[in-house]
Amino acid sequence: MVALRPLQALRLWQQVCLAEVRNEMPDLSERQLAILLTVYLDPPPHTVRGLAEKLKVTKPVITRALDTMGAMRLLARHRDEEDRRNVLIRRTVEGALFVERFGDTVVAKAGELAP
Amino acid sequence: MVALRPLQALRLWQQVCLAEVRNEMPDLSERQLAILLTVYLDPPPHTVRGLAEKLKVTKPVITRALDTMGAMRLLARHRDEEDRRNVLIRRTVEGALFVERFGDTVVAKAGELAP
DNA sequence: GCGCAATGATACGGAACCGAAACGGTTGTG
DNA sequence: CACAACCGTTTCGGTTCCGTATCATTGCGC
């Protein structure tokens, strides 16, 4: 667990949100970010329907987010050879770097919080 | 400061984002949330231009966000009596409750993180 | 009183996003 | 083999958001 007081939690959120909206960080929507972090933090395999269930959104939402983040090279699609109905969503080098930097930013903002 | 390791930071972000997109929490855009937290965490006075500068967005963005969050009673507009060109953005009871609950959710998710 | 600048709001065109419906392809079953 | 079920993608109509341009009001200096 991480010990975090309510005011610290809110301040942390504010600072990271401000960094995001000021374009200090690339601008992904909430859902895109949730998808991205899930792919990079949760163990594979990741499928469109799995992600849709996890986020409680419809599959086309995932498809479109994959389109967008695929174009940014943050994620990649691969057809599942064992069942070609499935698309497996994989990590990329660029995506891993993006997620690492995001994590570093959050850590940095946390470090600036009053005790 | 708050001691947070990169993986914890990312996990925290993931869990709160997932809670948000699953509608466990009301769905505000990143910018709306940044505006809301700024009004509730930073000392007044808050003006449209001040918020626009802080977020590095244009004034109509703030106006629209105020429309949306005003309708949700999370924020209120008051014309500044000393200079009637200004609109002062004030806190509301509902907004304070919302922000408090948001903070509690973040704290709860932080409490679930692996050490 | 006038001209100018500042304020926030409104209108406009465009981009991005949503869910529902539809579609084409693949797999499992009888 | 035919059909149902499943998959992800595409289309559709609607909503929300963006920046730019414009507007009405207010304040200030001359």
From TrEMBL, chains A, B:
SUPFAM superfamilies: Winged helix' DNA-binding domain (SSF46785)
InterPro entries: HTH_MarR-typ, MarR/SlyA-like, WH-like_DNA-bd_sf, WH_DNA-bd_sf
Highest rank taxon of the organism: Bacteria
Pfam family, one: MarR
Domain HTH marR-type: 1-115
Membrane-crossing segments per the record: none
Identification of the protein by name: MarR family transcriptional regulator
Organism: Chelativorans intermedius
Lineage: Bacteria, Pseudomonadati, Pseudomonadota, Alphaproteobacteria, Hyphomicrobiales
